[in-house]
Amino acid sequence: MWLTQLLERNRQCWPDRTALVDEERSVTWAEFHDRTLELARGLAGLGIERGDRVAVLAKDRIEVLESYFALARLGALFVPLNHSLAEPEVAGIMERVGAVAVIGESELLDRHPELPASVRMRLALDEPAFAALGSPGGARDLPQVADTDPIAVLHTSATTGQAKGVTVDSGSFRAIALGWLVMARPTDGIVMVNCCPLYHGSMVVSLTYLAAGATVVLMPGFTPQRALSAVERHRATHMWLVPQMLRFMLQAKGSHHTDLSSLREILYGAAPMPLDVYADAVRRLGCGFRQVYGMTEVGGPFVTLGPDEHPAPGDVTARIPCGRVVPGMSARAVDEAGRQVPPGEIGEIVVRGPGVMQGYWNDPEATAEITLDGWTRTGDLGFVDDEGRISLVDRTKDVIIRAGQNVYPSEIERALMTHAAVRDAAVVGMPDEDYGEVPLAYVALEAGAEADARALLAHVAKLLAPYKRPRRVEFIEQVPRNPAGKIVKKLLRV
């Protein structure tokens, strides 16, 4: 089984190399391997069996990954939970997957006193009893887990509705990791600061670099100061973040006094990279950039654009391409009938390959809806060029149809973001008697900046055709985004 083999091989190759670091401690590959085995035996002793679903409710820390690997070793399915969810949302996920146990931090567990009847045990990973689980003294046989056995239920980011449980096996993790590493060509001595949470598909990036023997630095939550400090303190070579995080880091006062010279590559994904942020980062950091395009349903990161393919900031006119699929995966753009469209023509991006999920947990109808002739629908509109590079235009559900013409909100958002006073922007459709639907723009201004709706509309009028221009501009303090950096447009629609 892939995760078990990963640990065994890395223990053999680099037993004394640091595998994981958090704000409390660090562990070597030998310690990570041994603790995972102990924990798997301890959990088995408590009655956790193959096929059981175990929720994990914690901020990023070493014990989270130890729990994931231990549960996978048992053939139990780990179910990461977003710790910012409300009590009914957490209970709903646990009930839908039939969780038999929850592992988490004491403070977070205390926020959820009422859980479904299926949950028969709570384990606080920051208490002594958890650390004592599986202590040497009693060996226990563990099951043989195949790569085709499900080992996790990862939940989508739910920007348009209720989060869906994505069932994945270790074969998916292996396929994505090996394909990704062929493209990324990792060198020895990688230290990666992970700014993204371990409770959804973005964690696959960390698993992938762990497979290559990298050291992964975990943080209990992102703040610009915490991320800057982690890079300097650990002499990090890589960072994994979303573009908004990079913007906040560059704006932080401490960024000018922090030694970031160790950085070789910044991995970014989940949302388009604003061109002003990219230009500023290139100028100030002098490192390479790698775009990550992924989707939980297809195994996580399945497309990348490496540093050697990133354009110079002055050469970017509209968007930076996402890149090419990793070896083993396939993608194409199709029309509404599922027919592949010619290179350069916009269609929905569909994907297939060994990284694709087994299906949504206990939801065959939703699984069938996202499947098209053996391909998995991403819901993203984009095109593939003659050299296989994918560029995204928008989400299929976000497209505004104005009198029969397609208007892509992301294009309007990019135009608004070129105004010096605009910090962030989101565009949604609003009903219109004459045209059916027209664009409505929500704008958050830079601190201390001044601009009125008329000035912004005049600005985009120079950049966009009349049918693409917003009908109205509303000012808000902050554009709602989820932890992955994606705009939560369901909170803005009228």
From TrEMBL:
Keywords per UniProt: Ligase
Keyword Ligase annotated: yes
Pfam families associated with the record: AMP-binding, AMP-binding_C
Domain AMP-dependent synthetase/ligase: 8-361
Keyword Transport recorded: no
Domain AMP-binding enzyme C-terminal: residue ranges: 411-486
Superkingdom of the source species: Bacteria
Record GO terms (molecular function): CoA-ligase activity
Protein name: 2-succinylbenzoate--CoA ligase
Organism of derivation: Streptomyces actuosus
